[in-house]
Amino acid sequence: MNLNIDWSFFTWELFSNFVLKGLYFSVILTAIATLGGILLGTLLALMRLSGRRWLMAPATVYVNGMRSIPLVMVILWFFLLVPLIIGRPIGAEISAIITFVAFEAAYFSEIMRAGIQSIPRGQVFAGQAVGMTYGQNMRLVILPQAFRNMLPVLLTQTIILFQDTSLVYAIGAYDMLKGFEIAGKNYGRPIEAYMAAAVVYFVICYALSWSVKRLHQKIAIIR
Question: What's the pLDDT band for 35 if we cut at 50, 70, 90?
Fold first, then answer.
């Protein structure tokens, strides 16, 4: 079987015309989903650790529910059902952003919960001893340390998130994979286009993983 692989079509012009737009959206989606996911995830983590059943129960159901459903199903459900509920379409890109924030918050919640629980209880008592409220203690003492402790894990989850952005292909959003697909169709080279997409994803994710590993080593030395 002769696949007749030809890479001559893959030029900077092709990359800038088809792939760059998709890469830009993938990066923007990753950044927004990471920031939004960490903020919402931290709130969910605090709810689960609050000791109040009326806060713990909904947060637990949300986190466990989201973590039990494949991301691609959540993407499709949100894209197809929300327009029916509100009576108008919201677009693939906006749908993808909202879905990723809501979905990733469940995973960031567990990371932040582990980070908060890793802080010695003595620091909580010390904050209370100097007159800090619960909110001040969390904001000034606990959360900064928890975030620092879990930073490598948060960044690793962000890399996974970037890989998952390729799933928005299912609803027609123009991400990096979509750009490669369109380029492959236009040039009649779909196999080479998908192979090139795999290489680009690998290079980006490997470089980011290496950077996270170095950061983790530096944090370990500082400790």
Answer: very high
The pLDDT confidence band at residue 148, using thresholds 50, 70 and 90, is confident
How many alpha carbons lie under 13 Å from residue 150 in its C-beta half-sphere? 24
Nearest residue to 155 (alpha-carbon basis) of 200, 94, 216, 198: 216
Chain-centre distance of CA 206, in angstroms? 16
The total number of residues shown for the chain amounts to 223
Phi/psi of residue 120, each to 5°?
Answer: -55, 140
Q: What is the pLDDT of residue 182?
A: 93
Task: Answer whether 37's CB lies under 8 Å from 104's CB.
Answer: yes
Compute the average pLDDT of residues 104-111: 96
pLDDT given at position 1: 44
Give CA–CA dist 160/146, Å, rounded.
21
User: Does pLDDT of 2 surpass 70?
Assistant: no
Of 65, 75, 89, whose CA–CA distance to 33 is shortest? 75
Q: What is the DSSP string of 114-145?
A: HHHHTS-HHHHHHHHHTT--HHHHIIIIIHHH
Q: What six digits make up the tokens of 173?
A: 């959003």
Query: Do 141 and 127 contact (CB within 8 A), yes or no?
Result: yes
223: helix, strand or coil:
coil
Q: What is the largest CA-CA distance in the chain?
A: 75
Q: Name residue, tokens 């983590």.
A: 45
Neighbours of 133 (CB within 10 A): 10
